[in-house]
Structures are given as structure tokens and as C-alpha cells.
Amino acid sequence: MDAAFEALRTKGFSGSSARAIASIAEVNPGLLFYYFDTLDDLLLEALRQTSEERLARHRASLEEVGSPAELVALLRRIYSEDSDSGHIRVVSEMVAGSVSRAPLGTRVMALMEPWVDLAEEGVRRTMAGSPLAAFAEPRQMALAGVTFYLGANLVTHLTDGTETVDGLLASAERAAGLFDLLSPPAPPPK
Prior knowledge:
By secondary structure, the protein is mainly α. It is 78% helix and 0% strand. The protein is elongated and about 60 Å long.
């Protein structure tokens, strides 16, 4: 799994061949197909593994969030960590690889769905009781957050503008403070 993740991170989807992954893992390429029926199965499993590990950690972090500003701050931290670790690059590469392969796209989206659910939970909880909640459907806000996450990575990749995305998230964090002024305090974390 580590070798498949590393191949996606460093060589992209198109460069993550069985030979490239086996070279990183220092194993015979045929061994990969002993455990996985297809290369897509191996790459999806690497994405699933890293995604589940990060999701568990960030789910715990979400329990401490009580306001829209804190939610955006968490998004900013997640984006930074995922960017530094290469996770966001792996996700983006799998999305890019699925553009021309619909069955792969369906499977990638299934792995992203728990992230949308987590984001929706955060939006729902931090907007509860706010007059702004009537204007923002939590599911749509969650999808917008995931869309931003993927789009921000593309902008960073195309422009090498990590500081641009961080600046945008910092601005969003400050703006979210305005929502805090219009919202009653969130219920205490569980």
C-alpha cells in the first residue's frame, strides 16, 4: 500500500504502473496481482487505507469544533496536512485517472463519500440555531468544501501557489468569524 501511495504521489496516476509500484516496494510486479485482480484495485486500496486513517483522526478533531470559524480553521489544518503528506495529491491523481474511466470514478467517489458526510456533520453542527442555516443546505456546503479541497490542489499544482490557497483559507477563516457573531453558541462537544 505504501508503494502504491508513493507511486501516485510522485509519479501520478499515469506513472503508477505495476512495474513502478513493484520497483518502489522492491518486489516482483507479478506479486501485486497475487493480491489484487487489477492495478485499479491496488490503487483504490491505497487510497482507501490512507483515507480511512486520516478520516478517523479528523473525525476526532471535528468533535472539538464549535463554530464556523473553528470549522474553517480545521479545514485549513486538514488541507495543510494533506498537502504536506501527499494525500491530496493522491486523491487528485485518482480523480484525474477516473475522468476517462467511469467505473473507477464511481469507486473513487464511494471513498470520498465519508468525507462529504463528515463535512456535512461539521456544517450542520456549527450552523445549528444560526439564522444563516436557512440559507445554506449542509449537504451542499459539504460538497462545496470537498470541491474546494480538490480544486485548491489543482490550483496549487498549476501555479505552485500553496501560499495562495493558505491565504484564501485564512481569509475564509476570518470571514467565518462573522458567522460566529450571528450564531448562538454551538452545543458543547460530545
